[in-house]
Amino acid sequence: MALDLEVNGKRVSVDADAATPLLWVLRDDLKLTGTKFGCGAAQCGACTVHVDGEAVRSCVLPIAAAVGRKVTTIEGLSSAVGKALSQAWIEEDVPQCGWCQTGQIMSAAVLVAEKATPSDADIDACMSGNVCRCATYVRIRRAIHSAAAIAKGGGR
Amino acid sequence: MSGRTLERRDLLRASAAVGGGLLVAFWFPASAEANSLALPKDFVPNAFVRIAPDGAVTVIINKAEMGQGVCTSLSMLVAEELDADWRRVGFEFAPVDPVYAHPGFGIQMTGGSTSIGGMFEPLRKAGAAARAMLVQAAAKRWNVDASECRTEKSTVTHTASGHSATYGELADAAAELEAPKDAPLKDPKDFRLIGRSTKRLDTVAKIAGTATFGLDVSVPGMLTAVVAHPPVFGGKAKRVDSAAALRVAGVVKVVEVPSGVAVVARGFWAAKLGRDALEIEWDDGANAGLSSEKLRADYAALSRTKGLTARHDGDPDGAFAAAKQVLEADYELPYLAHCPMEPLNCVVDLRTDSCEIWAGTQFQTVDHAAACAVAGLKPEQVKLHTTFLGGGFGRRANPASDYIVEAVAIAKQTGAPIKLVWTRTDDLRGGYYRPMWHSRIRAALAANGALAGWAHTIVGQSFIVGTPFEPFIIHDGIDGTSVEGSADTPYAIPAVHVDLHTTQVGVPTLWWRSVGHSHTAFVVETFLDEVAHALGEDALALRRRLLAKEPRHLAVLERAAGAAQWGTPLPAGRARGLAVHGSFNSFVATVLEVSLEHGRPRVHKAWTAIDCGRIVNPDGIVAQLEGAVGFGLTAALYSEITLRDGCVEQSNFHDYPMLRINEMPDVEVILVGSHEPSSGVGEPGVPPVAPALCNALFALTKKRIRRLPIRREDLTA
Ligand code: FES
Ligand code: FES
């Protein structure tokens, strides 16, 4: 059935069953492949997107539940925090294989938007839902601290 | 990273083997063809580099980029000798062609931590040849002597005449010249790029979500396939009722292939629902009774019998007979899944007389040949595009090409391009695991306190038997990958015996990051700790003594121990453990500091020192070693694939957990410089992690851990 969504600020209409997880609508129908598939069971965070500003595992969110809400994927992450995270991620050269990284950034974006100066404990709490098989965690942590500093005061 | 890829027709002109049997292709686009285009030509001096008239330098990467950073480090090798402006350097993945074969193994592949070591010379030669041609083109244009020209940042300069030109400006003219056969290479002291931390070329695309992995590929008209695999390895579908599956909206077709029953649909979700709706009666076949518990008992019994000798030094029987004390222990390690973060997948566009394939693969030559065989096409009709790999760890280097073969087989029956997608459960249950291992090990301690004898019996499967690698790796019945790290132990022990039982079990197995070292280092390094304890000697002191003639082991050991302040007191409840291990021609020592939190190990800090010969990209090595600590801890703390009634029990991250950020220790990486040839980086960091952890836990709890993953009950009385 036809469902109207708002993705990255654009209205789109997709023809999908209401129970289809948002992840597959993004990837297969809208070709927004920056959102990744890792487990399909809300266990790894690779598919993290923002729905009304909250980090959500899109692999378990039925598309019907996204109707009428603002969906943001990595392709549409254009906030100041998003830019700070990109800059920090590049400075720390975080990714290895890269598959988990967009999900990591989407989770981190909510953390940094909510906490101007996240502590290590905040990072543990917010980021432990995002698996990185390459174990880039040391750099993810550093990059989040540094992104928070960049976002706060234009520089570190 | 798309753009123009090299055409096969170009590659067929590849020729000229240069130096040491390493094949470096030098070919030229035929002038006639090139001239028929009015546009300025790209300068394509050889198979590994291309320079466009706008100055863009593209390095052709013949390796899989699976996180280890090769697209950056290999590009550095070319750019160094080319004196390219690094800001204008990009890369693309090579097509399948013999010119891109691994210089040691003769096929196009990525594995064994050999990319830098193998390509160090060939890529530098490719860069040097290109540079020489650009210089020659400039010298000709200015009518000066080439030897008076200098190059830097993609520019040729002739100081005396005041001339200078960029590589882009010279590309057209250079393309008309003959490639020199032996352009000189730089003296390493003149390196500007090699040895300097250089940012990865793929970071920006990976964080923006624009890097194309196999699962991201889409071709017009493409359908998605999800496969129901037999629950027992080797099983076959006896009866398939696809009626309900075909009623699922979006499902187009159900096809039977040798590896299972595929549901083909518009999009993943419909395919997955279709698979859920399949009714299949399976014939489980010969492996229906497989169970981990039974295998454990069988392996333990086998370990009490003599296997094939892999090493025999001195008089072990005599040493044991004369020993004042004999230590003995059994070690057990489970099957492990690679579990790359991007589940396996493959896109196939099969036509009557051609086939295009997109896949993240570490095994291009093998996969290409397998695809040709299944498609029934000639090699030149099949094009395999290598994408980024969302992790490999050996899983995407499969002599059986399982996911490629499966995808082509489905495409053959579909009549439309297909994308095969494995779920995480398919990945964990799909086989090709690090083998399960049993080790029985004994040490003879002499009256004078010497470690006089050592005997190690190894029991487990070979994943080399029956593959084309057999003649290279199996000698006198011994699979080198089963005993590596033990049979070649560097410890100075006068009498050593290592033997091997190669078992035959119906569970498909494969190399897993660090291969045989992933089990032998655990056994050797923890058992050596038991020896140190029995002798009343410090673990570092004993290793120093036994490695006195092994300077590279010693150097990393000293650096890691020094950084960790080995031997200094720690707060109550904390302890350190260490391990040192050489693999893939590199040497790594790791010290971990641990405590117990709620009865579970907590690793606070890791110090890990590596000597991997000449360093190309220091920060890239640091990243690999950090990652290796996390990868090794995941295996030690959590990972095990178990079988019951022939079926794999694990299904997703809840029962095959990964280390999370809150469990990741601080990691201090120490790079021990050396002028030895560049050696492995991706794998050698893994082997010392589990033994360092268990040695630290012994120091803390006095409990020996001889079975992985660590169980809560192993740490309590
Ligand atoms: S794919 Fe959604 S959490 Fe793993
Ligand atoms: S970078 Fe490979 S899974 Fe995170």
Strand runs of chain B, count: 29
The rounded Rg of chain A comes to 15 Å
Give the ligands present: FE2/S2 (inorganic) cluster
* Overall domain count of chain A: 2
Report Rg of chain B.
27 Å
Number of β-strand runs of chain A: 5
- The CATH homologous superfamily of the largest domain in chain B corresponds to Aldehyde oxidase/xanthine dehydrogenase, molybdopterin binding domain
- Largest sheet of chain B, order of strands side by side? 10-11-8-18-15-16-17
Q: According to CATH, what is the class of the largest domain in chain A?
A: Alpha Beta
Q: Average pLDDT value of chain A?
A: 96
Strand content of chain B: 15-25%
What structural class do helix, strand and pairing data of chain A support?
Answer: alpha+beta
Q: Structural class of the secondary elements of chain B?
A: alpha+beta
CATH architectural name of the largest domain in chain B: 2-Layer Sandwich
Separate helix tally of chain A: 5
Structure description:
The complex is a heterodimer of chains A (156) and B (717). With 156 residues, chain A is α+β, with helices and mostly antiparallel strands. Chain A has helices at 22-29, 80-92, 101-114, 120-127, 137-153; strands spanning 2-7, 10-15, 48-51, 54-57, 70-72. Chain A has a five-stranded mixed β-sheet, sandwiched between helices. Chain B has 717 residues and is α+β, with helices and mostly antiparallel strands. Chain B is built from 20 helices and 29 strands. A seven-stranded mixed β-sheet of chain B has the order 10-11-8-18-15-16-17. Chain B has a five-stranded mixed β-sheet with strand order 13-23-20-19-14, with helices on both faces. A four-stranded mixed β-sheet of chain B has the order 1-2-3-4. In chain B, helix 11 packs parallel to helix 12. Chain B is globular and about 80 Å long. Chain B starts with 7 loop residues before the first helix and ends in a 16-residue tail after the last helix. At the A-B interface, helix 1, helix 2, helix 3, helix 4 and helix 5 of A face helix 6 and helix 19 of B. The structure holds FE2/S2 (inorganic) cluster (FES) (2 copies). One FE2/S2 (inorganic) cluster sits between chains A (95-101, 132-134, 136) and B (67, 341, 391).
